[in-house]
Amino acid sequence: MSLTTLPGVCGIGLRAPHYREALDRQPELGWVEVHSENFFDGGTPLAMLRRVAECWPLSLHGVGLGLGSAARPDRGHLASLKRLVDETCPASVSEHLSFNHSPHRYVNDLLPIPYTRAALDAVAGHVSETQDALGRAILLENLSSYVEFPGNEMNEGEFLAELTRITGCGILLDVNNLYVNRVNLGTDTEAVLAALPLGAIGEIHLAGYSEREGMLVDTHSQAVHDEVWQFYREVIRRIGPRPTLIEWDLDIPPLAALQAEAAKAQAILEGRDGLA
After folding, report:
1. What SUPFAM superfamilies would the database entry show (predicted)?
2. What values do phi and psi take at 140, rounded to 5?
3. What is the pLDDT of residues 224-274, one digit of tens each?
4. Residue 59: φ, ψ to 5°
């Protein structure tokens, strides 16, 4: 199954505190996403994930591949991801448009990249190498950012559009990240959205930000804010329904709270939230 068969369905990020409850109770969840790296070592976590994949469509979301890095994708990481994909047959595989490593060092963060032709050529090579290794196309997620590189030659939407054209990858549109960038950096979100090839947008993420020293920080630690809900409505009116995911990774609430957030998104996807 592919998430493209679920264009109007909302899912949740399934995190460790909810594994047991979800499997025991098996609530109605449109689909679920997990972080790929948590299951690379096999054992009990992988056995649990196999059970999850039997109950709901599964999305594997990576946070460590760093396809925007200057160095090539780590071969060991790619091999582990390939094994996981083969084991679970996910409906979607995604990564971030970010860098996190050099040949000698890794950082535990999702760092922004310059939007230049040189960077595009490098990232396209890494995306193609990854897709060849996995035997399937992946989705690339736009990033929240707190600084901009000088000398950018295109905006993020144009960069992603070129990347999809060159590699055949898809786009994971994180609406919260785009909103954060609009507030923090003055990003022209209309221009970014206008540049994106709508047919390549395979998935949407929603999450809650925090406010620190006058900036919005993409912490995934709160409910989705009203301003982001309104922005999401605008995006859905523009591009049509897309599989949507509620992310909540810090200060994780009860599973019912994630289901309530998913229900809000579902109402918007179905045009029945009652708001213009």
Report:
1. Xylose isomerase-like
2. -110, 130
3. 999 999 999 999 999 999 999 999 999 999 999 999 999 999 999 999 886
4. -115, 130
Whether residue 276 lies inside any domain: the answer is no
219 falls within a domain: yes
CB-CB contact of 49 with 85 (8 Å): no
Angle between helices 43-55 and 75-88 (to 10 degrees): 40
Domain count, the chain: 1
What average pLDDT does the segment 212-235 reach? 95
151: left (phi over 0), alpha (psi -120 to 50) or beta: left
Q: pLDDT of 25-77, one tens digit each?
A: 999 999 999 999 999 999 999 999 999 999 999 999 998 888 988 888 999 99
Alpha-carbon dihedral sign for residues 91, 73, 147, 199: negative
Contact 10/267 with Cβ under 8 angstroms? no
CATH for 141: 3.20.20.150
- Whether 131 and 93 have beta carbons less than 8 Å apart is answered as no
Distances (CA, A) of 236 to 132, 231, 270: 32, 9, 10
Q: The domain containing residue 82 runs over which residues?
A: 3-269
Specify the pTM.
0.95
275 within some domain: no
User: Pseudo-torsion of CA 76, 77, 83, 88, nearest 10°?
Assistant: 170
Which 3 state secondary structure label does DSSP give 249? coil
